Amino acid sequence: MQHEVPVSSKAATQKNFRSKCRKTWLYIKHHPTMYLMLLPGLFFLFIYKLLPLYGIQIAFRDYNIFLGDNPIDAIAKSDWIGLKYFQRLFSSSQFFKVLRNTLVISCLKIIFLFPLPIICAILLNEVHKKVYHRIVQTVIYIPYFFSWVLIYGVFYTIVSSYGVINTIITSLGFERINFLTDPGNFLGLIVFTEGWKETGYNTIIYLASITSIDTTLYDAAKVDGANKWKQIWHITLPGLLPTIVLMLILRIGNILNAGFEQILVFYNPAVYNTADIIDTYVYRIGLGQMDFSLSSAMSLFNSVVAFILIVGANTISKKLLHRSIW
Fold first, then answer.
1. Would residue 300 count as lying in a domain?
2. What is the pLDDT of residue 4?
3. Phi, psi angles (nearest 5°) of residue 127
4. Of the candidates 114, 140, 136, which has an alpha carbon nearest to the alpha carbon of residue 125?
5. How far apart are CA 316 and CA 319, in angstroms?
């Protein structure tokens, strides 16, 4: 037997709803400039994030771009086939290979590169002479603005078979090292170049967090006899913990994003078995072989897994560390 909500309760709920709407409208009316500034961001969100969601259907259709007058019209005219491409994807040995490669490269980057900007930020914070501080910060930050194509050109002249490093090695009587074609050396090169490019940018994020730490805590620690290492361990690192947790959750959520642009410009057929990741596979299948449905199925799988990971990491962090994104 269903219990009906009393009329007076419904009226009260409607009254509260109208009151909240009125307050919201008055707030918008008194702050028009702020909401006007919000419009470009909402427009970007709608055009580049919400509108493309219509294309998710491609993963469930036998998509043929030539069926319609335009690619969007072709989606509606393509036959609905359900999970056929997901079954084909999960039964393919190629899929598990690129998934393994993606996880290996991402985990290597997290293990070796995630602590680097934290260490750099702490060390830079201890450089009290502004001139040296600015010089070092600028030097490590500049590579972030270089494109991966430019970085590949720089490192190719250094690590290629006849590059600077191999020229020095052969002059000393040793054999050349194949950095670009040997799978093991290639993974090391990928991790190193990622760290060289991105460490400076992430260092600034942690430096900004350090500046928000109350300086009186350091003064009190000095009075209590704490040396520099104890100050870092008991004040700086706990002060950085919210930022560290945030960055780690975001990194775990993007664990299936191993660096598409970087891998695309660096890798070659000799290292496909260890360097071909999900994004490059989608690129080669989707654009190279015009198999849009299969590549869309893999991209959708990537997005769903990323969503599950970021929610899971946030939940675990909330329960264990009592810190989270939301």
1. yes
2. 52
3. -85, 105
4. 136
5. 5
Q: Is residue 191 part of a domain?
A: yes
Nearest CA to 276 among 210, 151, 186, 193? 186
pLDDT tens-digit series, residues 77-131: 899 998 898 998 888 888 889 999 999 999 999 999 999 999 999 999 888 888 8
Using a 10 angstrom Cβ sphere, with 0-12 exposed, 13-18 middle and 19 or more buried, the burial of residue 5 is exposed
Expressed as residue numbers, the domain containing 248 is 90-320
Please give the Cα distance from 187 to 102 (Å, whole number).
11
CATH number of the domain residue 102 falls in: 1.10.3720.10
Q: How far apart are CA 133 and CA 43, in angstroms?
A: 40
Max intra-chain CA distance, the chain: 93
| Two tokens, residue 66 | 């030539």
Structural domain contains residue 18: no
Please give the Cα distance from 124 to 117 (Å, whole number): 10
Low-confidence ranges of the chain (pLDDT < 70): 1-10
Q: Classify residue 47: in a domain, yes or no.
A: no
